[in-house]
Design goal:
The protein is α/β, with parallel strands linked by helices. It has seven helices and eight strands. It has helices spanning 17-29, 66-70, 88-94, 98-102, 124-137, 151-154, 178-204, and strands at 6-11, 36-41, 62-63, 74-82, 85-86, 110-117, 141-142, 165-167. Strands 1, 2, 3, 4, 5, 6, 7 and 8 form an eight-stranded mixed β-sheet that branches. Strand 1 (6-11), helix 1 (17-29) and strand 2 (36-41) form a beta-alpha-beta unit. Helix 1 (17-29) crosses helix 7. The chain is globular and about 50 Å long. The two termini are 17 Å apart. The mean pLDDT is 92.
Length: 205
């Protein structure tokens, strides 16, 4: 572990909506003392095997590696919806984590997921569940959004008990509204709080 524990916020974003959510979750993480947020992304997957992506993206978060995941105190996975599932680039990265699974590297660490869709009923909940499944296989402790977050009952757009979500519109240009922003912030805050508590519990075991 690094000197200061961190929550890894690992996401894939094409139009910027999922990235905006990741940044809001990071703000929630860093609202607590003693922990920081680490934003990372994954490169796109190309159907042409000769195609390569720059090692360091031109803008936004840098690409994740397994050590980012291995050493995190908590994990937030974010992806836009692709036919009710996580996007292929994020799934591709997760499929490379077998060595972490074999060693139990992520067991008992808290995790959550977030997503963005172009339409209100565009598969948000199934996408969140698709990201939940590999986290359970890694032995992580999944943390959704509890209904103590009052925005869950007031939102007219994104927001689910399975994780924060956002409706970006058909052009993917609708910004996060106040409820979506607050729920993403609360999700980051909760994940950071659980990461610190579980880390302390592990040290005292």
């Amino acid at each position: 572990m690094s000197a200061q524990p961190y929550v890894l916020i690992l996401y894939y974003s094409r139009q910027g909506a999922t990235r905006a959510m990741a940044e809001r979750i990071a703000a929630g993480v860093e609202s607590l003392r003693g922990i920081e947020a680490r934003l990372r992304t994954v490169p796109p997957v190309s159907p042409t095997c000769e195609a390569v992506d720059p090692e360091i993206p031109a803008e936004g978060a840098i690409h994740a590696d397994l050590d980012d995941l291995r050493n995190c105190a908590g994990l937030a996975l974010g992806s836009p919806t692709r036919f009710g599932n996580m996007a292929a680039p994020l799934k591709y990265f997760i499929d490379t984590t077998s060595e972490l699974w074999l060693g139990g590297a992520l067991v008992d660490r808290p995790a959550t997921a977030f997503t963005s869709t172009s339409s209100l009923h565009g598969g948000q909940e199934t996408t969140l569940i698709s990201m939940l499944l590999p986290l359970l296989h890694h032995g992580m402790v999944y943390a959704g959004l509890p209904y103590s977050e009052v925005e869950l009952t007031r939102t007219q757009s994104g927001g689910t008990p399975y994780g924060a979500s956002h409706v970006a519109g058909t052009r993917s240009d609708r910004p996060l509204d106040d409820h979506e922003r607050q729920l993403a912030f609360a999700q980051g805050q909760r994940l950071a709080r659980l990461a610190l508590a579980l880390q302390r519990a592990g040290e005292n075991a």
